[in-house]
Specification:
α1 runs antiparallel to α3, α1 packs antiparallel against α5 and α3 runs antiparallel to α4. The protein has about 130 residues and is mainly α. It has one domain: de novo design (two linked rop proteins), CATH 1.20.1440.
């Protein structure tokens, strides 16, 4: 797990930004754009992933960051749920669904790994503080 100075350097944030772009592209399709509720929900959920990573990172508190990563992971699950709806409604085909579903799962794994890393770092810092 590399070090980062800003949320823009976090790989999960970069990947979620790419997901947002793909979701927005789908939402611009003629047969999708009229479904305002769907467009709003999936767009908000995808944006929430990146926003929670950024907000958590800037909290400057590892435990709070972990909490925000959990929110981001839940938003990734929400996107996956909406993708099933998109597939069922014919907004995306099976191939698009597979790519976006896998990307959402990848982001969730990245978030879990980052949270585990931060938790390990926090525990090490507590051990050092307790030893002093």
């Amino acid at each position: 797990m590399g070090k980062f100075n800003s949320f823009e350097e976090i790989e999960a944030w970069k990947e979620s930004r790419l997901l947002i772009q793909k979701i927005r592209s789908i939402c611009k399709k003629k047969n999708v754009v009229r479904d305002f509720s769907f467009v709003d929900q999936i767009t908000r959920a995808s944006r929430s992933i990146a926003a929670n990573i950024a907000e958590g990172n800037d909290s400057m508190n590892p435990l709070e960051f972990i909490t925000f990563l959990g929110y981001a992971k839940r938003s990734a699950a929400e996107v996956r749920s909406h993708l099933y709806d998109a597939l069922d409604e014919g907004y995306i085909d099976e191939g698009e669904f597979t790519v976006l579903n896998e990307q959402s799962k990848k982001i969730a794994r990245m978030l879990s790994n980052l949270a585990s890393y931060l938790q390990t770092c926090d525990l090490k810092q507590k051990r050092i503080a307790n030893a002093l």
